[in-house]
């Protein structure tokens, strides 16, 4: 049987272009330029991290592209696929997290990635993954509805039931089991995608990546000029602690990066700059902070 060759170079080109398009739009929204940090990985590959700190809109944010290679898969990648053990592998993707100054502007995460494992004389094993999710500190129904509507639009050309499936996957994935609460209001998440062939899966990934700015920037425009004080700031830094807990304990991308010997600065660029933890704190009943818990940090159909 002939061995199939996959056009991974086309995926890499798309991801590099996606990073540049997103950074250009975010720089225009913020008014400050993202720094470019190009790096090489000793074990193979490298990437470029685009970082903003103390901007006009974003307190901290990163939009990273990476393309790394290796021969020994970390446990986070090989656990569910014993057939890829011993193969050469490549992983590439664009991952971003944005932490705004204003507590009324939500934190957002987006990731699109491609993985391929090869061995001489054998068919490559490959899959796509990714998604996006929204983490507000003060909830607005129209924002959650807009974000989920845009996620639905990204997936609509690929099957009417796909959005519901990937929304549920996101709700279940971005969940802090030890807290018994979601990280935010969700979005979409998918992984291990290879159904329907390479071109179909690649097109789906492109649609998700291309819809990110439409999903997020209108929310930013609505909320960025709302006045806030120390109370809102304190709640924002408290809720950011949940973000840190999820990324360090559960996130597959973080675990893969650290276990595979990835570049720590780029892997942890998703960390918020200022975070606080409080012992057994509960919001005042009836407050906007309490409403985040009761009305937004729940699994619900936003459409």
From TrEMBL:
Sequence segments annotated as region (Important for dimerization): 243-278
Transmembrane stretches, start-end: none
CC per GO annotation: cytoplasm
UniProt function note: Involved in the heme biosynthesis. Catalyzes the aerobic oxidative decarboxylation of propionate groups of rings A and B of coproporphyrinogen-III to yield the vinyl groups in protoporphyrinogen-IX.
UniProt-annotated binding residues for a divalent metal cation: 99, 109, 148, 178
Gene Ontology biological process terms in this record: protoporphyrinogen IX biosynthetic process
Catalytic site positions: 109 (proton donor)
SUPFAM superfamilies found in the cross-reference section: Coproporphyrinogen III oxidase
Keywords of this entry: Cytoplasm, Heme biosynthesis, Metal-binding, Oxidoreductase, Porphyrin biosynthesis
Superkingdom in the source lineage: Bacteria
Top EC class for this record: oxidoreductase
Subunit-level organization: Homodimer.
InterPro entries noted in UniProt: Coprogen_oxidase_aer, Coprogen_oxidase_aer_sf, Coprogen_oxidase_CS
Annotated GO MF terms: coproporphyrinogen oxidase activity; metal ion binding; protein homodimerization activity
Site (Important for dimerization): 178
Compartmental location: Cytoplasm
Protein name, entry field: Oxygen-dependent coproporphyrinogen-III oxidase
EC number(s) per entry: 1.3.3.3
Catalytic activity: coproporphyrinogen III + O2 + 2 H(+) = protoporphyrinogen IX + 2 CO2 + 2 H2O
Pfam families per UniProt: Coprogen_oxidas (PF01218)
The protein's annotated pathway: Porphyrin-containing compound metabolism; protoporphyrin-IX biosynthesis; protoporphyrinogen-IX from coproporphyrinogen-III (O2 route): step 1/1
Cofactor dependence: a divalent metal cation
Family: Belongs to the aerobic coproporphyrinogen-III oxidase family.
Binding-site list for substrate: 95, 111-113, 261-263
């Amino acid at each position: 049987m002939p061995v199939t060759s996959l056009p991974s170079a086309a995926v890499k080109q798309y991801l590099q272009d996606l990073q540049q398009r997103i950074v250009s739009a975010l720089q225009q929204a913020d008014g400050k330029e993202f720094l470019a940090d190009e790096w090489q990985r000793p074990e193979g590959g490298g990437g470029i991290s685009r970082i903003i700190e103390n901007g006009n809109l974003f307190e901290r944010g990163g939009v990273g592209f990476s393309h790394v290679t290796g021969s020994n898969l970390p446990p986070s990648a090989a656990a569910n696929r014993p057939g890829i053990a011993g193969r050469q592998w490549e992983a590439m993707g664009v991952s971003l997290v944005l932490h705004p100054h204003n507590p009324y502007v939500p934190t957002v995460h987006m990731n699109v990635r491609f993985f391929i494992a090869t061995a001489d004389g054998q068919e490559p094993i490959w899959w796509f993954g990714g998604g996006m999710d929204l983490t507000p500190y003060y909830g607005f129904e129209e924002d959650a509805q807009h974000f989920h509507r845009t996620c639905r639009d990204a997936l609509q050309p690929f099957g009417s039931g796909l959005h519901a499936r990937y929304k549920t996957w996101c709700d279940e994935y971005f969940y802090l089991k030890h807290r018994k609460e979601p990280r935010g209001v969700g979005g979409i998440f998918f992984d291990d995608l290879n159904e329907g062939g390479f071109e179909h899966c690649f097109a789906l990934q492109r649609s998700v990546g291309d819809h990110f700015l439409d999903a997020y920037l209108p929310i930013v425009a609505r909320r960025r000029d709302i006045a806030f004080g120390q109370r809102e700031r304190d709640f924002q830094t408290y809720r950011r602690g949940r973000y840190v807990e999820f990324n360090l304990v559960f996130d597959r991308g973080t675990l893969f990066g650290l276990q595979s010997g990835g570049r720590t600065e780029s892997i942890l660029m998703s960390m918020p700059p200022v975070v606080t933890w409080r012992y057994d704190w509960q919001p005042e009943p009836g407050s906007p902070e309490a409403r985040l818990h009761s009305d937004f940090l729940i699994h619900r159909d936003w459409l």
